[in-house]
Amino acid sequence: MALPSRQVVGTCGAAVVLVGMGLLGSSLRSKLYHSASQEAQWEAQQIAQRARDEINLKLRETEARVSAAASLNQIRAMVSHSVDRATLVDAFTTEEWWRSFRDEFPVQLLMVRGQAIDLGREPAANVEPLLAAARQKTPASQLMLANQKPYFAVAALIELPPQLARDASFLILGKPFLAKDLTVPQNFSGAAILASEKRALFEAGAADQLPRLRELLGGDTRATAPDASWSAAAVDVAPKLMLWIWTDTSAKSQEASRLARTNVWPLWAVAVLLAGGCIYLGFRRGARGDRRELPRPSSDEASESKVIIAPDIEQPQEASANNGPSAAQAVTLSAVPSAAADLNQFGRYRLLHVLGEGSTMRADLGVLRGAEGFSRLFVIKRLRPELARQPAAVAEFVERAQLGSSLVHSNIVPIYDFGRVNDEYFIAQEHILGRNLQTLLLRLKRSDGTFLQPVLVFYIAQEILKALEYAHTHRSSPTQAAGVVHGNIAPTKILISAMGEVKVLDFGIPHAKARPSGARVEKALFLSPEQARGEAIDARSDLYSLAMTMFWCLSGRAPYVMKPEQDLLEKVSAGPGREERDLIGVLGGAATYVLQRALEPEPEKRFQTAEEFARAIPPWEMSRAGERLHSLMRKLFDEDFREEQARFSDWQTGLDELSISESPPEASGEVRRIGRSR
């Protein structure tokens, strides 16, 4: 090729490399900012929904107050006896029994047999929609706009004796929405506005950000800066009333910028080197073209110049490390007479060794053998002997086992068998090669000095919520009143299989008790406040325990801050206070907004269902989170899993006349302790 042509090709090659790098860098930067914008938008939407939930909670409180007013005997007597309008007005404006309601509610309207009687200090707005709702379900409430002011308005049915209730009568009370009613989460960095179309009615938050939010009123209900430095969202709270939220997400923008620099600069360095290579090859002198052709060597010379390649050197085999005696030393085997071996037979199952023993249950690894060499490993769980003699404990175990055996879901470890051998009731669960979440966290901390990445924590939570939603709504028979509550969600009850699958353990085991004793007191860390107080629990208790587990995974500790003289159960029974909520706020981002609500001490303020909880988890790309969890399990436990599989293979295929004196495979040196700060 002529020299000028090589120069043109080299120059063009360098240009193509640099232009391609520019496009690649721009695309990567755009994707990073787009991801940050999505997360910022989700954060703003969650804050707006949380603020709306607070308004709805105040509406529920107002409903209770108005229902109490409608049930007063004085009102029921006046309505049932059809007193005249003047008497009603006089009673509502002068009587002492009505004083507290008179001071609290400036809007007062009485609907008696279709006639409206205005009794308040301020005129009532159009209440027909509210009355229509109250006729369907009482009490009915809404945030309504009257005289350009928002009001909490409630309509409650006045219950009368059947012979006097010819037409329904309603009491309608309204009180103004105040600035203190516009609440935002703690540590909120942003602004909030309750607006009617483009007019701001109430404002809260940072003064420097309120003007920016005012500019968005009446526009698109979702907006985010191109660089994800801020985000805004709006939600409907009532007809013609919207709640607008502006949140500062500059931290996400800075993180996206940092990631862009971290990823793009190395690519630019490679591109510059490639472009330099193209220029060099294009502009160097044609040495090959100027060089005279050398004479070919003769066949004798060629044979003398052959390169002799040394044969591969065999590496010494590491049989002693993997396949030799040391691999077998992990299990101590001793031959015993067959009569003694029969002591390990438990019904159809042959017990291999003890997996663990808790305050109520004992778990053994067992094998079930059948025809033609069939064998399968199970985990056999039985009540402890002292509990097996208590009828109440046995009855609870049987009831829970029967409920648990009806659950069939990919995220629940199934119960395959339930029965009784002699006087012992048992359940047989599928044996799954893996580790519980507590062991995973402790190994990760010891190996890398880190905790689980938030995306993995959210992925695990999503999988657990699938199981909980199924169990909480499952009915094993038409007579069953409610679904199945786990009652003991904790890191030790969440199994991560060797393949990265997430499963819930011990559906069908009696609920955790409110007063664990001795070394088991740490189990109380994950109980909901109502469970720690010994009260009845429902599905919302499981959601609370899952949220507490998520906090522990993200931070490596429980959130409770206690003085030395405080009892752990006392703190757990009260639920997270101000100090604990500050710790949750330190997590930042999506975790704070999800956990702040999920860890509300009052069940009514939490997520009400597993499905609602799952919707609140950020819509990050989780399609490969399972693969990442699988890779993490292989990295941390691959050698352990191979050893265990070898042992299981031996146990299943012929060592039935040997007794095994060994601690269970689960006991791999991990410290079984959950930290809490004092």
Describe this structure in words.
With 678 residues, this protein is of the alpha+beta class. Among the domains are: 71-177, Beta-Lactamase (2-Layer Sandwich); 338-425 and 433-474 and 482-660, Transferase(Phosphotransferase), domain 1, CATH 1.10.510.10. Strand 12 (345-346) and strand 13 (349-357) form a beta hairpin. Helix 1 runs parallel beside helix 21 and helix 16 (454-473) runs antiparallel to helix 22 (610-616).
What is the CATH class designation of the domain at 338-425 and 433-474 and 482-660?
A: Mainly Alpha
Helix content: 40-55%
User: What strand line-up does the widest sheet have?
Assistant: 12-13-14-15-17-16
Question: Number of DSSP helices?
Answer: 23
What's the overall geometry? flat
Give the SSE layout.
Elements: H1 3-70, H2 73-80, H3 85-94, H4 99-104, E1 107-112, E2 115-118, H5 128-136, E3 140-146, E4 149-157, E5 170-176, E6 190-196, E7 199-205, H6 210-216, E8 222-224, E9 230-238, E10 241-248, H7 250-283, H8 287-290, H9 299-304, H10 319-322, H11 325-328, E11 333-335, H12 338-341, E12 345-346, E13 349-357, E14 361-369, E15 375-383, H13 385-388, H14 391-405, E16 415-421, E17 424-430, E18 434-436, H15 437-448, H16 454-473, E19 494-497, E20 502-504, H17 529-532, H18 539-555, H19 568-574, H20 578-587, H21 589-598, H22 610-616, H23 625-652, E21 658-660
Antiparallel strand pairs: 1-2, 1-5, 3-4, 4-5, 6-7, 6-10, 8-9, 9-10, 11-21, 12-13, 13-14, 14-15, 15-17, 16-17, 18-19, 19-20
